């Protein structure tokens, strides 16, 4: 009878430990964000491109061409469709998920719990904070999820409405990142979005507005029709 060599078990363990980390860095404390603003869910929905990500020094593979569609669902939650690509030969990989609002009495910034259909059932929901956004061009998203009593997995992303950050916000975003992400292991990697590298993805074709905004768009012609009817009478 053959037994499984120890190195195979070790390799399997190593592979999965890295996969679980998934572009995160290990930290003993989360960053404090003192921002305070009224988050408007209906203005956050639509298409976002990930243009930068906190660099994971242990990553064996990078996710590029990352595009996501946030659709406003019930009670301030979002239904997420995302696609990304591994290398220029890769095909788009799709995943879908949900972000549920996490309500804390002292919360000043919008906090969500995110789960994708690719998330291991054994893994906790990912904590997601939208620490800065102007809705129309950029967003900075921070994640710090506890893995045990002493350690957290930390990630952060810069999202943009276009595949490249609008020129008038680049400096603002840089200043924000430099002043908040100050640890030596806080290094950013630009997510590749060039047309010759990225394959077309259906996520870009998805509707850009959730149920909330589209019902407003639909009701406008009805309202006009109503006004017309009143005039005719
Ligand atoms: C990454 O690798 C370094 C050394 O190669 C190690 O010290 C560190 O703990 C690793 N980090 C994670 C998150 O696995
Ligand atoms: C996750 O969802 C995406 C998009 O809906 C789908 O294409 C993919 O096959 C799903 N993956 C898994 C592991 O269920
Ligand atoms: C928590 O997890 C980290 C990383 O896997 C590990 O280094 C640390 O020893 C763990 N701490 C406890 C208390 O289990």
UniProtKB/TrEMBL annotation:
It comes from the Eukaryota. Coiled coil: none annotated. GO terms for biological process: lipid metabolic process; response to reactive oxygen species. Residues 1-23 form the signal peptide. Keywords: Disulfide bond, Signal. GO terms for molecular function: pigment binding. InterPro entries: Calycin, Invtbrt_color, Lipocln_cytosolic_FA-bd_dom. GO terms for cellular component: cytoplasm. Residues 46-179 form the Lipocalin/cytosolic fatty-acid binding domain. The keyword Glycoprotein does not apply. Pfam families: Lipocalin. This is Lipocalin/cytosolic fatty-acid binding domain-containing protein. The lineage of its organism: Eukaryota, Metazoa, Ecdysozoa, Arthropoda, Hexapoda.
């Amino acid at each position: 009878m053959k037994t499984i060599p120890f190195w195979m078990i070790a390799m399997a363990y190593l592979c999965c430990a890295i996969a679980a980390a998934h572009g995160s860095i290990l930290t003993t404390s989360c960053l404090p964000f003192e921002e305070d603003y009224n988050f408007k869910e209906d203005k956050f929905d639509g298409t976002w491109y990930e243009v930068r990500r906190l660099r994971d020094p242990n990553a064996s593979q990078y996710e590029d061409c990352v595009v996501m569609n946030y659709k406003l669902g019930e009670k301030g939650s979002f239904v997420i469709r995302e696609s990304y690509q591994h290398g220029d030969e890769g095909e788009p990989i799709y995943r879908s998920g949900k972000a549920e609002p996490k309500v804390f009495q002292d919360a000043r910034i919008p906090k969500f719990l995110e789960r994708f259909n690719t998330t291991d059932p054994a893994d906790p929901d990912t904590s997601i904070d939208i620490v800065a956004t102007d809705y129309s061009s950029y967003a900075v998203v921070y994640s710090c999820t506890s893995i045990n009593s002493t350690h957290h997995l930390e990630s952060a992303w810069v999202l943009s409405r276009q595949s490249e950050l609008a020129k008038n916000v680049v400096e603002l975003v840089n200043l924000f990142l430099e002043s908040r992400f100050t640890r030596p292991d806080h290094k950013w990697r630009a997510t590749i979005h060039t047309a010759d590298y990225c394959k077309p993805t259906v996520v870009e074709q998805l509707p850009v507005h959730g149920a909330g905004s589209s019902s407003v768009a639909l009701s406008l012609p009805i309202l006009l029709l109503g006004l017309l009817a009143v005039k005719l009478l």
